[in-house]
């Protein structure tokens, strides 16, 4: 007995330590999400999840390895806080698109939506991470970065040629509006990565059709964020000039995208 008991206590301490570590991981990888990850692995989407790139209240982005390449895995946390910061119009749109009413169902629909918008943008040759697949609350996409790590956000990047960034953003957002008929709705130097001197637009799930009643207003706000940032870098551009350059004037007559 006196041999068994101390061992039990040890095991208990071990378990407590383990459980503290697990709590951290559990925030993202609850049982269901782990099953989803393992199913994606058996589908051949990737071989392993390597490390977190960014974690927030609503989810996390992790680097994964797929053969000799990397992937970015975006995991939406299933909970009632996930949509807290979502604009009402986006949630309305989602509810119209899907018949589900529970949080998990809405989050799966949201993940599917981000995947399909990334697909539309890739088709229109807008620079975004290419989508590779999705299952439930997990999205698999191209990893923007290299073996050293993920690309910095535009906000944090060292920018040698701000004018070139402006031209690149006009090109990317212009393509998004004219070719993909979409307005992002949450563009800023935070939702833009800067990799090898070029901008990559991310976090697209809340994008709306350019025929959406809020489209013009959302585009103006997106471009104002960029213009404010660019002016601080010495680029002489106003929100109106930016809007004109991306062809926002034609928004009202743009065809309705799906
Ligand atoms: N494809 C990718 N490749 C590399 N890094 C990425 C990729 N997608 C996202 N990231 C990293 O993860 C962070 C969060 O991604 P994203 O903006 O899509 O998620 P989010 O849930 O909206 O997070 P946040 O609330 O911080 O904006 C990004 O700022 C970026 O650093
Ligand atoms: Mg974001």
Structure at a glance:
With 258 residues, the chain is of the alpha+beta class. It is 42% helix and 19% strand.
What does this structure look like?
The protein is α+β, with helices and mostly antiparallel strands. It has a domain of 103 residues: Transferase(Phosphotransferase) domain 1 (Transferase(Phosphotransferase), domain 1, Orthogonal Bundle), CATH 1.10.510. Helices cover 42% and strands 19% of the residues. The strands form 4 sheets. It has a 5-stranded antiparallel sheet, sandwiched between helices. A hairpin with a 2-residue loop joins strand 9 and strand 10. Helix 6 packs across helix 7. The C terminus is likely disordered. The structure holds adenosine-5'-triphosphate and magnesium ion. The site of magnesium ion has 2 residues, from loops.
